[in-house]
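Thread: quick sanity check before group meeting

JM: Hey all, I'm pulling together slides for Thursday and realized we never actually wrote out the predicted structure for the chain we discussed last week. Dropping the sequence here so it's in one place. If anyone has concerns about the input, flag it before I start.
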Amino acid sequence: MGTGQAAGSNQTPLGLHRVAEKIGTGLTVGTVFRSREPVGLVSQGMPDAPIAHRILWLEGLEPGFNRGDGVDSHDRYIYIHGIGDERTLGRPASIGCIHLAASDLLPLFDRIPEGTLVWIQS
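JM (edit): ok, ran it. Output follows.
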């Protein structure tokens, strides 16, 4: 096995990824997701939602590093996504996901297609 961040490490997997799936197209800004399904709105009693607005679900492309048994970004549900409380941005607060402010996430989500390559480095 390579030197990737293993499942359970709570670390963001580094290296080359692609956007495997875009979730939330056409939904209201502030939509809250649980298991990739909309379950409410930040403005309607869910201000601390851990996943909000949109989801870019990543798939690692480097076998043994971020793809495959024990290190697979897709199997670990690694996303680029928004959050309800943006005051936590810039601090570790996930199981390896990348959190973005809605003002950054929404234009990115709208501009890139599924399959877009993503390079993550420390």
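AS: nice. DSSP finds one helix and seven strands in the chain. The chain has a mean pLDDT of 91.
JM: adding both to the slides.
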